[in-house]
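Lecture 7 notes. Example A: sequence first, then its structure tokens.
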Amino acid sequence: MSKLYIKEMKLFVTFILFLSILSSYSQTNSISGKITSEGENLPYVNVYLKKTTIGTVTNENGFFQIEKITNGTYTIVISSVGFKSKYEKITFSGGENIVQNFSLNESNSLEEIVISGTLKPVTKSNSPVPVEVYSKTFFKKNPTPSIFESMQNVNGVRPQLNCNVCNTGDIHINGLEGPYTFVLIDGMPIVSGLSTVYGLTGIPQALIERVEVVKGPASTLYGSEAVGGIINIITKKPSNSPALATDFFVSSWGEVNTDIGMRYKLSEKTQGLLGVNYFNYQNRIDNNKDGFTDLTLQNRISIFNKVTIERESNKVFTIAGRYVYEDRWGGEVDWKREFRGTDIKYGESIYTNRWETFGTYQLPTSENINFQFSANGHYQDSFYGTDKYDAEQIIGFGQFVFNKQIDKNHDLLLGLAYRYTFYDDNTFATIDEKGLINQPSITHLPGIFLQDEISLNKQNKVLIGARWDYNSLHGSIFSPRINYKWNSKDNSDIFRFSIGNGFRVTNVFTEDHAALTGAREVEFDGELDPETSWNANVNYVKKIVREYSLITFDASAFYTHFNNRILPDYETDPNKIIYANLNGFSVSKGVSLNSDITFTNGLSINAGVTLMDVSITESDIKTRQLLTESFSGVWSLSYKFKNNFTIDYTGNIYGPMRLPLISDTDPRPENSPWFSIQNIQLTKKFNNSFEIYGGVKNLLNFTPAANSIARAFDPFDKNVDFDQNEQAVTTPNNPNALAFDPSYVYASNQGIRTFIGVRFTVF
């Protein structure tokens, strides 16, 4: 055989081998199938190959298909909020078209993707900051007309009513008042200042994907107001939303609530999500016979719109807006609109106009740089009896966030932020020092923050962060923090420790409803300096997987020490609310325990308790903080029958709170009683698109005592005698020397009621 022939044969074999290798690489694979849960198709489930950019979302029938997959071994991930994520290895060897179905198990809080703790998406178990996640499924167990009321079944979180008459309120976290709670929508600061009192209503719940809760200071990332914690309301992505989602319910008290969410398409690359919430209540009920409405009459509409634009390289661009109008009033049951601002009949009437916009734009650079922005305007026209309160607030916020993985061990986050606040009202809060010229408050707050997430190894992680802000009124403010996380190899045990600093710059009139009511005169004792606090938190999570159950225990211990704290003083002078920096310190400390138990037979249990001590120490005298319970507990028991019939039993229980009395002769109890609000709901799901639900709220029919409003029969103090110091004096008609005061409030006057609702979804 000639050498030339041998050489040609070698070349031919080499060529054939090359073609076969090329062919094997050019042959692509695909995988398709259905995602279900207990036999029902699951739409909008994320399906992707781990450590790649290859993935998709299931359609309205739960079907998915991923194509153009090169040969190799991959881990396919199936995840959806409210379900336990599934991971499975799949090998493709050449031109395969694999058909495989997957089933997910329900779970309230295991491997959800969270962003609130670190400003970047990570799985909940991998986050150095403990983040609690509550899915839309959780809130459906006790449907309410607002996110404010929905938080009543979250452990350590309590919606607090601040007024017996107009029923406005805020949200307490671990015993700290609403102004210490920072509320965000899609990670953007929206609810703050004036809207801490009025802006928590009107968020269309049909659009809410989940709610993330971080307890403890987060000023390092979020700045002022994030002292007590964060509530981050995450709305649905248009691409993951049904074409139409409606939720309508009515109650036996006459409440009517409608939520509508609609997905639309402007172009091939532009999708939108429109949401409308309408709430109406016009029934004058006075079951406690004090002459005042038990529940404030309300007429509210909220319109929400969110648009996402597809860009090259999957860069993010989303923008959203919301408009809220609300007309609410409470007062004497025979009050009329023409009595607004007069002393004929007492009423608290509030007109609120509010707009918001926020979004994220990822810069077209090779690096991961996001520009996040938000702005809101809040306009309020209100009367509290004869006292008029008009206010205007405009807040603009923007920040650049740069995120880069330096190496395998360092994940760096750098941010530049700026916040502008304009506030004007008709009170002395915006009058110049001479009391002659209106002088709106304008605050500039630039800041810079840095965070480094250090992976020491697969089981140990440290997060170090610091923030510097310059307040145009108060100067420089520095906020450091450090977090440590350890997890077992199988993630069944997680331990976290954190310590950090928080700060808050206050505007009393935008945060405390009691400052607005005409029942007491407001007085400032000196200039108000920013509050500062140090917080330490220890968190331990234990997951136990059994053949027929999945159990999660989540325990935390917390400690917060405040300096310069600003607290309303109701007790020095019964006719005044005196605001001043505390000449001493305040401490919030306690422990909490959450448990989630899910059984394969359809039973799920979620329960939690919080024990805490919130105190004020001034002149070496320690007192309990007003309107703060020492014990609280929540629970949610659900059982799903095989015929798509579900029963939910939810409730909470609160220990006694110290209440603001007018004087030593005030006959009302100094402390509230133990009380519990319990609810039961039955739901029948006919198919993936239609369900009916109904039940009873406040099963025990608990309401506060009828004398909660002091001298409700004389709201303008026409029959009260005052001395030269403007203190009420004892008379035969006023033996306890009282004056009208609606600030003695700890729970709603709304008693037992039934409700029925319908949900209809078009995918």
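Example B, a different protein, same format:
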Amino acid sequence: MGATKKIESSPLGGLLQETVFTVFDVETTGLSPDRNRMTEIGIVKIKGGEVIDEYSALINPEQFIPPEITRLTGISNELVYDKPKFGELAGDIMNFMFSGEESLVLAGHNVKFDYGFLNASLHRAGYNKLGVPSVCTARLARRLNRQLPSKSLDSLRRHFGIHSRRKHRALDDAKATAVILTHFLEQLITEHEFETLEELLGFQYRKIYDDSKISARFKKLKIDLQSVPQKPGVYYMLNKKGEIIYIGKAKNLKDRLSSYFYHNVSHSTKIRKLVRYVHKVEWETTGSELSALLAESRMIKSHKPRFNSAIKSYRKFPFIKIDVQRAYPRVYKVYEIIPDGARYYGPFSSSYTVNTLIERINKLYKLRKCDDKVLHPAKNKSACMYYEFGQCSAPCNLTVTAAEYQKEVKGVDKFLTTDTEGGALRLLEREMLLESESMNFEHASYIRDNISDLRKVLLNIELTNSIVELQNYIIKCSNDNSKEAWELFLIVNGKIAKTISYEKSSIEDSDFVNNLAEDINYHYFNGALFKDFVFSKAYHKFKIDEIDTLKIISNWVYRNYTPSRIMKMTEKTSISGVMKFIFGKTYHILG
């Protein structure tokens, strides 16, 4: 026992994207931190929307667990009988929470309850109580998801499509809360222009604004919000001199602009300052949120408004990269996709999955791990320790030929892209089964999450490589505010060749259908689509804004991917098949 190391308060001015949030959940024998005790704790650390570490433990509460608690959580007296007491785990828990260089910011759903139990348990174990900042996802939900009838964890799970194997178990609830917090952080950053931890901590305690109250500032403006359409688009805020001082995008222009000028106690300091300078608002509609995102990025670069931050940085997901453009490729984790000729696998939702897969690749395949970007083999070079361990075939000293090395590379590609025997998916499924049979349910649950992540990547992999390798595909976006309006993006060799908006009535318009078929034929079937295209030599053909466009599309696709929204163009694709994908019915079109 003893006092904890000095607790550092997190720098409140720190950027949200760079803050590490320690999301935790506890299961208990009752509702009172003084009279009742913890039976389980689950902790998940996230940064930039990505899980970076996790911890869980069952705890012997040293008191009887009531039957109703067992029915709710599945944690019985027999299950925790031989588990460590909290005092025996306190050191490990604190070391995990304070591991790394970052300061501590706690988060949870109804976090006051969990925080109270944690502090009471620490105090009884002889540790100092924690006094660090905390973020409550229940409070955030009341401000960001006011339309939901319930702000419970189960309700938010359903709303965000989060599937947990076990409800009311600490680690599963902490993971679900971490995903929910990630959604809220992204919403606050992209829609409310929050930047710092201080803004987030203040926001969760502010009064929930009332749409019926109009700010005094708004009354002085000549803006008719009733005339603003409920469509996706881009809006421009101008000062008295007619200068554009801010550009934003919206799924629903009316809702977004209304949020600025109605009772605005929930606004960040930056937005409150912005609204004071606004004299006029203009807007333009787009066919979908994706085109609004692209237009916003383009216009910010063009006008450089004073209140816009540097071009928005979108959440970065990890990829596995194999630099196949080099003679002796390596495998490693990256967060950016660039047109360099390499092959990318992902995006994955968690570094855990990437690290797990790379660890297995290193054991199963003998690719090099050295840092040299370009390898210059020579017989007089000495082999590294990985060769001695049997984890590298030593191409550096020509122990393996280039052809033999390429076979290993192809093996890794097959391992990552197939769900057949010998693929990563089957390997993980076998490991999960073995862990379950050995009663190692926590580790089996961890592998299950890896499998779920990898399954999504396997569905996404062709599209991802379409973006990265400049192949060809069609994106079909629905208008979020109309079930009968869509927008098509025709992507040719990695660039947007054409954008086409249409409505349900267009299906019966023969002129529109024939013109669209001509566009499809021109861009895909009568052009240079299926001729050889050497991607590694194409980098100079891309401008910076085109690469930014690729990143925006990739980010949007990962969040919105379904087979009904994306069509990969291959040599087997027919014009009739494309038209059926677009309209949902078969057209007999020549071409």
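Note on Example B: Residues 182 and 414 are 32 Å apart (CA to CA). The first strand starts at residue 20 and ends at 28.
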